[in-house]
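STRUCTURE REQUEST FORM
Protein name: Tyrosinase
Source organism: Streptomyces luteolifulvus
Requested output: structure tokens
Priority: standard
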Amino acid sequence: MPELSRRRALAAAAALAAAAGVQSAAAPAASAAGDQHQHGSPAAFDEIYKGRRIQGRPVTGGGHHQHHGGGYSVSVDGVELHVMRNADGSWISVVSHYDPVPTPRAAARAAVDELQGAPLVPFPAN
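Status: completed
Returned output:
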């Protein structure tokens, strides 16, 4: 068996680090995929996140939701959170507008984080 040289040890460590990085990078994608409905639209959710009730569901029909939110409604403690789907498939909300996330659920969680316990004030549609 060949001796373990420093070069081989460093190469093995680099390979392990690369494999760990690929695995951890794939985990968020798998999580985001779990938030998808069978037709590629986001799945409905209803959960308590940091003591706040966040809900999301697909909506049908036209109107404001269909144009900006991709036919999806999100609320925090029963107050509508205005969300929009970007061209690249990411989502933003009126609360965390400059921090795109992969799903409406993640947008609701980011809004709760930003609100830091403050109530969500309704956003006028127009």
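Reviewer notes: Residues 6-34 form the longest helix (29 residues). DSSP finds three helices and six strands in the chain.
Form closed.
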